[in-house]
């Protein structure tokens, strides 16, 4: 099977030859270009944006990090040349560097990874390599931050392209969450009830900045992943009357609904509106206050796609990620983290047809890994995670060759004060039991 990138190149070339537009086949013809082409156009226009891909329509904060210029030689190099240079740099570095690749990363980069996994698995994988001076994280910014928090202080965590953020993580910034918290404290007060439960606890999804993990750590709160969100919510309900859940409304809603929390007790907090767009009574009656955030990749899945898959492939197993909207999770056969999806496919003993609701690079890789099954993405339009896509092999070759030359570029460093509180919230998550 050809990689997502190869497919995009082919589609774009065919469209150019036929004078057609990209409609219905890829989400943006700009995907076929190098990220630097987009960086330049974007910088000239002065518009912060995520670049081509699933979140290209999302508003990026003004402070969204920019990569700056990549030396020309890396932009001009062919894929084969970049491959040779990456392998040579890897060989020269040996155990001094470890390369981590997220499930949603493109194949052109994943082929050089020492570990492939979800964000938390990768941060833990880095712990198995205390000898490595550099951890090259081919994922997005919040993942590199988590790796920096969990790794030894002398280890440098490197994000090959600084513009690889996460649009969902950016939807909850520390100032807006602090403002929300102040308003909630005014309504709820801070006194525990007769059972010792505080009025509200903050819970942040792993896909958030280190500053928000620290915000939770400092206030008795906790971090969750898509694998343990249920356990974490149960933990929080033992200690609090309600939860403020950010940034992903869908993971929060899907998880709380599965625990039996009625939808009317899950008001949404829109940070641009007074009291998040709610009246005080709705907040007082709430069990989970959901932040107005979402993943642009998983938001693309809809019930119509599931209905079509069931019609076209009777008996199909539909598995979706819990970052998908509630209606999609309800219509699927099962929902779970990337690890859950992988394990569900690995566990199928008979040839099975799977329709998967998660990022296209991961789905295509699963299809190649399990040829005995028919595995396809519910969304027929090729549209990868915009921000993950910004890690091009050219950036990987650059950061590795700089390391060989004794220079550390693109280091992600979380301030010591933030690290301490963020680590507290992460440790609570590791210790949380159902
Ligand atoms: S897939 Fe969604 S949540 Fe994951 S990094 Fe991309 S935008 Fe963020």
From TrEMBL:
Pfam families given in the database record: NadA
Positions that bind iminosuccinate: 102, 119, 205-207, 226, 321-323, 338
InterPro entries assigned to the protein according to its UniProt record, in alphabetical order: NadA, NadA_sf, Quinolinate_synth_A_type3
HAMAP family in the record: NadA_type3 (MF_00569)
Transmembrane segments: none
Protein name according to UniProt: Quinolinate synthase
Assigned protein family: Belongs to the quinolinate synthase family. Type 3 subfamily.
Keyword Iron: yes
Compartments where located: Cytoplasm
Purpose: Catalyzes the condensation of iminoaspartate with dihydroxyacetone phosphate to form quinolinate.
Cofactor binding notes: Binds 1 [4Fe-4S] cluster per subunit.
Pathway: Cofactor biosynthesis; NAD(+) biosynthesis; quinolinate from iminoaspartate: step 1/1
EC number, as in UniProt: 2.5.1.72
The reaction(s) this protein catalyses: iminosuccinate + dihydroxyacetone phosphate = quinolinate + phosphate + 2 H2O + H(+)
Alphabetized UniProt keyword annotations: 4Fe-4S, Cytoplasm, Iron, Iron-sulfur, Metal-binding, Pyridine nucleotide biosynthesis, Transferase
Binding residue positions for [4Fe-4S] cluster: 166, 295, 385
Listed cofactors: [4Fe-4S] cluster
EC primary class: transferase
């Amino acid at each position: 099977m050809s990689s997502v990138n190869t497919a995009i190149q082919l589609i774009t070339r065919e469209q150019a030859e036929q004078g057609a537009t990209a409609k219905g086949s890829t989400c943006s013809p700009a995907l076929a270009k190098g990220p630097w082409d987009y960086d330049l156009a974007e910088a000239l226009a002065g518009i912060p944006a995520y670049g081509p891909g699933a979140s290209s329509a999302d508003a990026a904060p003004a402070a969204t990090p920019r990569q700056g210029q990549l030396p020309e030689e890396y932009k001009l190099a062919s894929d084969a040349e970049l491959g040779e240079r990456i392998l040579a740099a890897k060989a020269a570095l040996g155990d001094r560097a470890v390369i981590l690749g997220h499930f949603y990363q493109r194949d052109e980069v994943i082929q050089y990874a020492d570990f492939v996994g979800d964000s938390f698995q990768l941060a833990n994988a880095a712990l198995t390599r205390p000898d490595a001076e550099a951890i090259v994280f081919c994922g997005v910014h919040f993942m590199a931050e988590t790796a920096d928090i969990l790794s030894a202080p002398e280890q440098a965590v490197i994000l090959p392209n600084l513009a690889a953020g996460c649009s969902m993580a950016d939807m909850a910034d520390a100032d807006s969450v602090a403002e929300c918290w102040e308003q909630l404290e005014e309504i709820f007060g801070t006194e525990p009830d007769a059972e010792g439960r505080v009025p509200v606890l903050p819970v942040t999804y792993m896909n958030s900045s280190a500053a928000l993990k620290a915000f939770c750590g400092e206030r008795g709160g906790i971090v969750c992943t898509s694998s343990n969100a249920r356990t974490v919510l149960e933990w929080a309900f033992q200690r609090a009357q309600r939860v403020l859940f950010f940034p992903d409304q869908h993971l929060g809603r899907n998880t709380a609904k599965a625990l039996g929390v009625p939808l009317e007790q899950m008001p949404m907090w829109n940070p641009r509106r007074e009291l998040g767009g709610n009246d005080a009574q709705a907040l007082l009656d709430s069990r989970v206050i959901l932040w107005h955030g979402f993943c642009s990749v998983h938001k693309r899945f809809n019930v119509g796609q599931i209905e079509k898959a069931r019609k076209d492939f009777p008996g199909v197993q539909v598995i979706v990620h819990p970052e998908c909207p509630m209606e999609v999770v309800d219509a699927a056969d099962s929902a779970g983290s990337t690890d859950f999806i992988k394990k569900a496919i690995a566990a199928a003993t008979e040839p099975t047809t799977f329709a998967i609701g998660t990022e296209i690079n991961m789905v295509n890789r699963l299809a190649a890994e399990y040829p005995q099954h028919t595995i396809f993405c519910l969304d027929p339009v090729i549209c990868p995670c915009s921000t993950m896509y910004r890690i091009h092999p050219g950036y990987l070759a650059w950061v590795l060759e700089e390391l060989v030359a004794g220079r550390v570029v693109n280091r992600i460093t979380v301030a010591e004060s933030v690290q301490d509180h963020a680590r507290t919230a992460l440790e609570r998550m590791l210790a949380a039991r159902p």
